[in-house]
Amino acid sequence: MQTVDASQSNSTASKGGQDIILSARGVTVGFGTKVILNELDLDVRRGEVLGFVGGSGTGKSVLMRAILGLIPRRAGKIRIFGYDLERATEAERLSIDRRWGVLFQQGALFSSLTVKQNIQVPMREHLKLSPRLMDELATLKLELVGLPQDAGDKYPSELSGGMVKRASLARALALDPDLVFLDEPTSGLDPIGAAAFDKLIANLSETLGLTVYMVTHDLDSLHSICDRIAVLGQKKVSAIGPIEEMMVNDDPWIKSYFRGDRALKRV
Ligand SMILES: Nc1ncnc2c1ncn2[C@@H]1O[C@H](COP(=O)(O)OP(=O)(O)OP(=O)(O)O)[C@@H](O)[C@H]1O
Ligand SMILES: [Mg+2]
User: What distance in Å separates the CA atoms of residue 150 and residue 139, rounded to the nearest whole number?
Assistant: First the structure.
């Protein structure tokens, strides 16, 4: 049995021991008569970078939102940081909210606020800090995600796509979370920008012991930084494991995703 603590190890293979930071059991989510997720089970290990894949419209974003409590579940249990989300008191819920950060697929930043102000939104919500301290913290977060300091005073519309992603990540990291949810963080970036973003995420995971839950269609990210990959199929997590396991899985969808024409054209 693997018992290595991710924070004490640099080896990718041993990252994410048996300590489960998030577990979903029997999660069912639907809209009207349409069932999107049916009795889904998932465990996320502390310290791992988990990549989440699945066809477009299969429910990856819906699952993320259901975990975050933004979409109601019809059935199932979600435990996060050891708390049962449904039974958490208001104070517990607030403390849970402080321990996770989110980069949404759409509408990542408030367009009427500068980057710095965007990063400070979670701080204002959860902490009582002086404006000066908040400025210092925002400066640190900009540095952490590799943005120049002058980006802090810009509005999202003045940034490139890659910079918006980095600024959104800075906001997700505003409260020094244990876990971040990233919904397609490299979509729309050129391959060099995407590779740089991947490297940033891998570094953060290594140095901060951050657990990363990342929805992605990016095969390069899946190969280069994910410790495990979860596949959403038939309204459930149909497979989960390291990339090596995905490469030999014979499920038709998984096979064509990881070993299809497009995948094999990767150099
Ligand atoms: N608020 C909602 N009301 C009704 N249906 C919804 C709602 N949100 C999502 N859906 C439906 O749930 C299904 C799953 O959507 P979701 O956004 O999770 O897909 P996805 O796997 O993230 O796809 P993509 O890879 O394209 O982002 C889709 O059929 C979508 O139309
Ligand atoms: Mg989505």
Answer: 10
- Alpha-carbon distance of 221 to 202, in angstroms, equals 10
Residue 3: pLDDT band (50, 70, 90) is very low
Q: Whose CA is nearest to atom 29 of ligand 1?
A: 57
Residues within 5 Å of ion ligand 2, judged at the Cβ atom: 60-61, 105
Pocket test for ligand 1, best of 34, 36, 238 (most atoms within 8 A of CB): 36
Distance CA 31, CA 164 (A): 31
Question: How many angstroms separate the alpha carbon of residue 217 from the centre of ligand 2?
Answer: 10
On whether the CB atoms of residues 170 and 142 are closer than 8 A, the answer is yes
Banded pLDDT at 5 (limits 50, 70, 90): very low
* Contact predicate 231/222, CB 8 Å: no
Q: Is 161 helix (H, G, I), strand (E, B) or coil?
A: helix
In tens, the pLDDT along 235-265 reads 999 999 999 999 999 999 999 999 888 776 6
Q: Specify the pLDDT at position 187.
A: 86
Query: In the numeric block, which tokens belong to residue 158?
Result: 């003045």
Phi and psi at 260, nearest 5°, equal -75, 180
